[in-house]
Amino acid sequence: MKRISLALIAFLIVSSLLSGQTVLSSLAAKDARSMAMGGAFTSLGSGYQSFYGNPAGFASGRFMLTLANASAWGYVKPSIDNIDVLTSAINELSGGSSGGAGGTAALIQTVGGLITSNGLGAGASAGLGFTGGGWGIGATAIGDAYARGATLLGTSLVGSGQVNFIGGIAVTLGPKDFNLKLGGDVRPFVRVDTAMSVMSLLGSMAAATADPVAGIMGNEANYGLGLLADLGAIMTAGPLAVGLSIRDIGAPFNYYSTTLADLGTAINDPTGLSFTSATFAPDITAGLSFAPMPAFLSWLVDPVAYVEVRDALALLEPDANIWNSLHAGAEIKLLNFIYLRGGLSQGYMSVGGGVDLLILQGDIGVFTEEMGAHPGDQGRSGVAANVRLHF
To answer: Which of 95, 96, 184, 354 shows its CA 20 to 30 Å from the CA of 59?
Structure first.
């Protein structure tokens, strides 16, 4: 216990020393399986999920070669009214309402309602890799953009992208049903962040004579290259499993300023560019799972329950509220290939499902997550889908 306390104190001291730097948040894919379970599938993931969850998962499950993994998500409430609103906006952008002042005003009103109520945005990720037998080698690319404000005027669309190359190992200590898995990986990465005014973007896209791509590419972009590490542990005791992952451990790196148009050139040669020092805020997640069904019946029905606490260090703060970090969910596998899922994320419900057809797996999830300081302040709803080709 004394060693754990000393480690936490040292961690907090290091964190305080980084307060003068630009601190970046972790950028992870909105995995449809996890989002359908309230986001409660990070510290106990295995296979491909280990690349953005717990590297101890490299020692779990069978050997898996993922030739392609593609995910996409949108930040919009999946309702008929919102579909109609988006359809109207797309018609404006495609010239269905002839641009001009009237068309621009209608477009701003249409999109503005979505941005001020739920926020509007989208993201995608792609990757491939090999996991199993204690090894994990792969690459992932993630992009995410989101806009939300009390009013449309002055709201910015904030976008981030990151490419990771991952190499890691894991070991299993103990027999199959009672063991401890320990793992770690290193991740060379490239990170890009940008922001642009929603009003200027909409005006440029709605004007018939404007070049919206040129307008977007002229925006400022910040980027950095560096090396991150992740550590994890998973302890299994019969139907119970406990997981702990610490992600985004790394030294400060140069965070350069350029434009989106000059990004490729700048990454190859940053000479003369202004920069600041940046670092990542380490992400600590702890989770628990319970799988009660005996192995000889699991092919028929196999329920698993998950509970997870994100940003665990925040619970040490005096005004900490566990609801800010709590995620819970459940998954029921039927006939070894059909999945039904549901969960709670900071008090918000989520739901989804999927199928696993030997080498092709597809998942979908509808979710809401908290963007404010307290549960119920600023929920953001969305839909995520995922397709994976693996052997």
So the answer is: 354
